[in-house]
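In the design runs reported in the main text, the only information available to the sequence generator was the tokenized backbone. The following block is the verbatim input for one such run; it is reproduced so that readers can re-run the procedure and compare outputs position by position.
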């Protein structure tokens, strides 16, 4: 068998270092495209009696895991605080077995954790965890979303009254809308303040998270505002948005003014 090329060697080492169950198990599951040369792993990684090639590569594999763990601790600080370090370590071990990163960047490594938590054992004792994880991941998405210029009251004032029913409002790319079963925002704020998160209250609540003037903000909102923003996000007309809110012209006007002040409106299609 010919010596692997540099590309083949890099691909092989990547597969072994990122193997969910460790380098040794990764070696056993190699397919035909990644079989080692006649010299085995030792032909690629120098080993000795004290530290064989597999154990040397395991050092890099462990470093890879702990780098992922550290990154997810940053993304999910409140989840970490609520479950404790040991349980979080085990949670991420389980998570990465099911959702190994598929991109060189760490940015999206934790995006599947909220749905993963729905069926995880930790959620049996702490049923609010999927909501809390979704809240924290929405903060990440809002922070990383692209910029967009906001429209102003003066811009909206130029729109003819008869054009408003067909108007479609464009929302800031950073806006995240959450419908939650637990008031996890309260626990998140307590953790941010260095206090115990406590047990979130079980109640339906609606939250918007967005970035405005370099700050990521979050606010619990009423059900009608949530419905209106969902309509706008789905490309519905202003007339449909008003039907979703269904609380009169004064309420609609107040919401639009609030959205302008918060930097949520970035344009409108006529």
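Verbatim output:
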């Amino acid at each position: 068998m010919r010596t692997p090329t540099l590309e083949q060697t890099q691909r092989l080492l990547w597969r072994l270092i990122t193997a969910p169950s460790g380098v040794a198990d990764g070696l056993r599951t190699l397919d035909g495209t990644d079989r080692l040369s006649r010299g085995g792993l030792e032909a690629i990684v120098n080993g000795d009696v004290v530290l064989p090639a597999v154990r040397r590569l395991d050092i890099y594999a462990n470093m890879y895991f702990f780098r992922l763990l550290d990154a997810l601790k940053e993304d999910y600080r409140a989840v970490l605080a609520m479950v404790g370090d040991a349980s979080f370590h085990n949670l991420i071990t389980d998570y990465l077995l099911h959702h190994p990163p598929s991109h060189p960047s760490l940015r999206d490594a934790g995006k599947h954790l909220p749905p993963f938590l729905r069926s995880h054992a930790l959620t049996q004792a702490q049923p609010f965890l999927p909501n809390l994880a979704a809240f924290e991941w929405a903060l990440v998405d809002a922070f990383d979303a692209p910029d967009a210029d906001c429209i102003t009251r003066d811009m909206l004032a130029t729109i003819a009254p008869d054009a408003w029913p067909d108007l479609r409002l464009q929302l800031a790319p950073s806006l995240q809308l959450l419908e939650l079963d637990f008031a996890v925002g309260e626990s998140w704020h307590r953790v941010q303040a260095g206090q115990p998160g406590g047990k979130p209250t079980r109640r339906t609540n609606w939250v918007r998270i967005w970035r405005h003037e370099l700050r990521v903000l979050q606010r619990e909102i009423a059900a009608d505002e949530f419905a209106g923003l969902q309509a706008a996000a789905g490309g519905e007309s202003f007339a449909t948005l008003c039907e979703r809110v269904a609380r009169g012209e004064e309420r609609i006007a107040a919401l639009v003014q609030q959205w302008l002040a918060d930097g949520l409106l970035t344009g409108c299609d006529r």
